[in-house]
Each structure stands twice: as C-alpha cells, then as structure tokens.
Design a protein that fits this description.
- The chain is an alpha/beta fold.
- The protein folds into two domains: 211 residues, Rossmann fold (3-Layer(aba) Sandwich), CATH 3.40.50; 81 residues, Alpha-Beta Plaits (2-Layer Sandwich).
- Helix content is 31%, strand content 27%.
- Strand 6, helix 5 and strand 7 form a beta-alpha-beta unit.
- Helix 2 packs across helix 3.
- Bound molecules: adenosine-5'-triphosphate and magnesium ion.
Length: 308
C-alpha cells in the first residue's frame, strides 16, 4: 500500500526524516513508534503527500493514480468546535462531494461503530478528549478509505479510551482496512502487526513485535521492588541499563547469571530485600531502550493484550 524509498526531509538544518525505507502492506496494522521529535508526523505527512521529500520517493497503492483512497487523522485535528458531532461529519464529508443521502447512511454506521450516537448533537467543544479523538477518526472514515493514516490518535487520553480506540481499529482491520499509525506509547507497539522504531529521523528497527524482541542483544531481568530507588544497579559492570517500569525494575544485561549474582550481592550489601524474578520476555520498551540505549517515556495503566 505504501512504499518509501530512501526518504529524507530536511527543515533548514534539521533532518526530520533521514533515509527511511519502509513498506506498509495491504491489511497491515503498521505502527511508527518513537519519542517526541522522532519524525513521526513528518513521515506520515510525507506518506500522505502533504509535504514533499527533500530526496527519496513515496509510492501509494502501487503508484497507480486514483486506485486507492486513504483517510488521514492529523496529530492536531481541527474539529469545528461550534459544530455538533453530526455537523462535523457532514461538513467533512461535504469536502469530498459526497451526496447527502450517502453521508447520512455512512455517518449512522460509523457513529454506531464508535459509539458516538448518544452524543450526535453535542458540540465538538463539549466532548471529552477521548471522544474528540473518536470524532476525528469518524471524520477520517466517512470517505470509506482503504487505508487509515493516524498520527498519535490516542495521545493524552485515558487508558479506557485507548483500549476502546484500539478495539475499533482491530474491527476496521478485520474488515480489510490497512492501518498506518504513529504512537509514542511502547505498549501500543505490542498491538501492531508491524512496527518501525523511529529515533531522530532514522529507522532503528522494523518487524513484528515478537521478531524485534528476539533480535535484541540484551536479556531482561525483572526485579520487583517496593518503590526503592534502584538506579544504582545501572552502575554495575554486568548491567547495561536499569530502568523503572511501573512498580518494578527492568535490568538489561548481556549475560543473565553473572548479572543476577552481581545484583544479589550489591542488594545484600545495602540490606535491600527485593525479589528478583527470572529472565523475562522483553517488552517493546526494553527493545527500544536496547536498540537506542535511551530511556523512553511510557504510559502505564493498561494491559495491551486484552484488546485484540
Ligand atoms: N515545519 C517544520 N519546520 C521546522 N522544523 C520542523 C517542522 N516540522 C518538524 N520539524 C522538526 O523535525 C523534527 C521531527 O518532528 P516531527 O513533528 O516529525 O516529530 P514527531 O515524532 O511527530 O514528534 P511529536 O511526538 O512531538 O509529535 C523535530 O525536530 C521538529 O522540530
Ligand atoms: Mg508528531
């Protein structure tokens, strides 16, 4: 559906997207995952053709003109605050010259899907953050696109809403929609079929989440601690990185047994009692940290596995 070859986009001295080659296939749920300023928005805007690359090439739908359609939900969607939910949908659809009868039918279906029916006549300004995002999604769906391109659609909204939003995405995907989205949340990366990790404009890794977890050189040991500061573990020569992870620590190591011994001895010397669990399957956050050797900001509070 989308092919990017050696895509680069500069803004003055800043290289926002640097030599990116990627392919999004039909039926994918493809996630562009990276921290603030990684280049996600720029890459999605290049994919949509909203901006031109400095060099490289993007091809949509195999390069044949008018063969496909996509809906785009920008990071900062400007809904009309003084229009109601249904009026926003009608307004958006009218930009595509869709006739009134068709708009009415489609609006009914997607409002049902996004459970916005009870809020149909509410002004967009009076919606919660999560509902605004759903309305923006609804507007992107009104043209019945083959592909959805979504820029951080769940940013800043609560965990319950994020789950619901992902349920809608899975539903659409099961009906055949290709989804290309960006997210700063590593837990959402777990929900994508394919993930591209983006850092400073460059692709750090691409693959299915399970593949990426096997590729990293570090093993992860999990330590359960009752909110003690264990950052000093990162200073041990056996430990590559130690990071706080909700109510526990994840320690990235090259060799599990020597690291466990070193950790146990330093904790004992300090009189700290914690439970060290065995090596665990890395999370996508661990993958990102291992590949970029950088800490990432994460949102906690929900379990991605129970969405799909
Ligand atoms: N129009 C622009 N003019 C100048 N610099 C820009 C422009 N758009 C993006 N940049 C720069 O390019 C880099 C990548 O920005 P981009 O918005 O693509 O990142 P992002 O991953 O979407 O970040 P965020 O998570 O904050 O949305 C940043 O350094 C940004 O300041
Ligand atoms: Mg962005």
């Amino acid at each position: 559906m989308i092919r990017m070859e050696g895509l680069t986009r500069k803004f003055g001295a800043v290289t926002a997207v640097n030599e990116v080659s990627l392919q999004v296939d039909r039926g994918d749920i493809f996630g562009l995952v990276g921290p603030d300023g990684a280049g996600k928005t720029t890459l999605l805007r290049l994919a949509c053709g909203l901006i031109n690359p400095t060099s490289g090439r993007v091809t949509l739908f195999g390069g044949e003109k008018d063969t496909g359609s996509f809906g785009y939900m920008p990071q900062r969607f400007s809904l009309c605050g003084d229009l109601t939910v249904i009026e926003n949908i009608e307004f958006f659809a009218s930009l595509y010259q869709i006739d009134k009868k068709t708009i009415k039918k489609r609006a009914g279906e997607i409002l049902e899907l996004t459970k916005l029916v009870p809020f149909k006549t509410r002004f967009a300004d009076a919606l919660s953050g999560g509902m605004k995002q759903k309305l923006a999604l609804t507007c992107a769906l009104v043209i019945q696109p083959e592909m959805l391109i979504l820029d951080e659609p769940t940013f800043g909204v609560d965990p319950e809403f994020r789950k619901e939003f992902w349920r809608i995405l899975y539903l659409l995907n099961r009906e055949g929609m290709t989804i290309f989205l960006s997210t700063p949340y590593m837990d959402e990366a777990e929900l994508c079929r394919q993930v591209a990790l983006l850092d400073q404009g460059r692709i750090v890794a691409v693959g299915a989440p399970d593949q990426l977890k096997k590729q990293i050189k570090h093993k992860i040991i999990e330590i359960k601690a009752d909110a003690k500061d264990l950052d000093f573990l990162g200073e041990l020569p056996e430990v590559a990185d130690a990071s706080f992870y909700g109510d526990r620590y994840h320690v990235a190591v090259l060799a599990v047994e020597p690291a466990k011994a070193a950790i146990a001895s330093v904790l004992a010397a300090k009189g700290i009692t914690v439970s060290i669990t065995e090596e665990i399957t890395p999370s996508m956050e661990d993958v990102f940290v291992s590949l970029t050797e950088k800490a990432v900001s994460m949102a906690y509070g929900w379990v991605p596995q129970d969405v799909a």
